[in-house]
Amino acid sequence: MNAIAALSCEISGLPTVDEALALTPWQCPPPAGIAQVPLAAALGRVLAEGAHALATVPPCDRSAMDGYTYRFGDPAPLRLVGAAPAGAPHTGSIAAGECITIATGGALPEGCDTVALREHCIVTAHGVQVKAKGAGANVRRRGEDFHAGDLLAAAGTRITSRHIALLAAAGVLHVCVRPALQIAVLSIGDELLGSSADAIHDANRPMLAALCAARGHGISDLGILPDSRSQLTAALRQAAADHDVIILSAGTSAGDGDHVHGALLDCGGQLFVSGVAIRPGKPVSLGRIGSALVLALPGNPAAAYVTFLVLGMPLLRRLAGETPPPQSWQRVTATFSHRKKPGLREYLRVRSTPGADGTLRIVPCRDDGPAMLTSLAEADGLVMLAEEDIGFDAGNAVLFASFHALEAI
To answer: 9: Cβ–Cβ under 8 A, 6 or more apart, which residues?
Structure first.
C-alpha cells in the first residue's frame, strides 16, 4: 500500500490539493485507441489528432455589407452595370467608372476592391454617388479567417459547440477523438435506502452523473449501496473490470460505517491519497483498482461538488487526454470578511455582482455549510483561499472562479 494511505486525519499530515493532484494522474493510464466520429457527434469529446481546415474561408473576397462595390478612387458618379447577390456572383469584370449592387456575402467581381454601404450612397439619374472610408472598406478578404490546411483545433482540445461551428465551416465532416471515459457513479449510505423519518434523498449521484455526462463521458449509474464492506467490495470489483473511473460518495471517514478504504484494499486496490488539506471535503480519497481510478468524495453534497471540481475534474481531464484549460481564477473585490486556519485550502461559495464602478464584487451565501444545497444553488462561483492565507477583509481582492468556468467543456 502506498505510504500516503497511512496519513493521519490531522490537517498537518495531509497532502495539499496540488500534492494530491501530482500523486494520482500518473498511476492511471488513459484509455488506448482512437475513434473517428461524425462532427455532429463530437460534442464534449477530446481530439486525438489535430483538426485541419479542408477549405479556405472566405473562399474569395466577399462583401461584409449590403451596398455597392467598385474600384476605390474612380470618380463619381459611377455607372451601375449589374448586381451580385449572395450565392450568384456577377459574371465578367468591372471597368473603371462602373459599380454593381452587392449583398452581404456576395463575391467581389474582378476590378472591384471596395464596398460602399447602401445607406451612404445616393442613386441619381446620372449614376451612383459612393462614399467609403478607404480602399478595401467593408470587404472580407479571401482566407482572412483561415486557409485550407490550417490547424484549427490541436490534439487534446475538448470539442465545444464553437469548435463544431469552426470545423463545419472548414468542410470537416469527421474528427479523430480519444475514447470517452467510462465512469461508474454510486452512492453509499443506509440513510439513503431507508423509509424511516430520518431517511434522505440521494443528491450526490444525480449531480455527479450530470457533471460527467456533460463532458461527453459514458455513465453507468450503479445506484445506492448500503453501509456494507462486503457489498461495496463486490460492487467496486465488478465496476473496475469495465470502467475507467469509479466515482462514489460517503464512506471515506473513520466511522464504524465507513468502509470505502477497506473495500478498496479488499479488491486488491491501492490507496494513493486518504484525506486532503481542503475545506470543505477533507475526507476525499483517491486510489486505483486495476486500471480504474477511484475517486471517493465526501457524503455532504456541497463538499462532494467542490472536491469534484477541484480534484476530480482535473484528473478526468488528464485521464481523457485533454489539454488543461487556462486558469479560471480572477481577482475580484470581497464585500465581507472571513477568517480561516492556515495549513488548508478553503473554498467559499459566493455570488458575484457588479459594483457601482462596474467591477466584479462577491457577496457571501446565506449558509456555507458542507451539507447546504440551497447555498450551492444560490452561489455562482467559489472564492479560493490558499494554504498560507488566514483570511481577508471587506474591500480586499480575492481569487474567484465562476461555476460556469470551472465546469466548462
So the answer is: 254, 275, 282
Who contacts 133 (Cβ-Cβ below 8 Å, separation ≥6)? Answer: none
Beta strands in 43-159 (DSSP E): 51-52, 62-63, 67-70, 79-84, 98-102, 114-117, 122-124, 127-129, 139-140, 151-153
Burial of 71 (0-12, 13-18, 19+ CB in 10 A): middle
pLDDT digits (tens, 9 = 90+) for 304-339: 999 999 999 999 998 998 988 887 899 999 999 999
Domains of the chain by start residue, with CATH: 3-32+181-319 (3.40.980.10), 35-56+145-177 (3.90.105.10), 62-140 (2.170.190.11), 330-407 (2.40.340.10)
User: Which residues, given as ranges, of the chain have pLDDT below 50?
Assistant: 1-10
Please tell me the distance from the alpha carbon of residue 236 to that of residue 217, in angstroms, as a whole number: 19
Spatial separation of the C-alpha atoms in residues 374 and 170, rounded to whole Å:
45
Q: Which of 276, 253, 280 is nearest to 348 (CA)?
A: 280
- CB-side neighbour CA atoms (13 Å) of 183: 28
* Pick from 113, 13, 19: nearest CA to 311: 19
Taking the C-alpha atoms of residue 200 and residue 195, their distance in angstroms, rounded to an integer, is: 9
For 82-128, what is each residue's pLDDT tens digit? Answer: 999 988 999 888 999 999 999 999 999 999 999 999 999 999 989 99
Cis peptide before 58 (omega within 30 of 0): yes
**Residue 397: per-residue pLDDT:** 95
Label residue 177 exposed, middle or buried (CB < 10 Å: 0-12, 13-18, 19+): buried
Q: Is the dihedral of CA 299, 301, 306, 309 positive or negative?
A: positive
pLDDT of residue 297: 96
Cell of 227: 453501509
Residue 246 vs residues 223, 241, 257: alpha-carbon distances, Å? 12, 11, 20
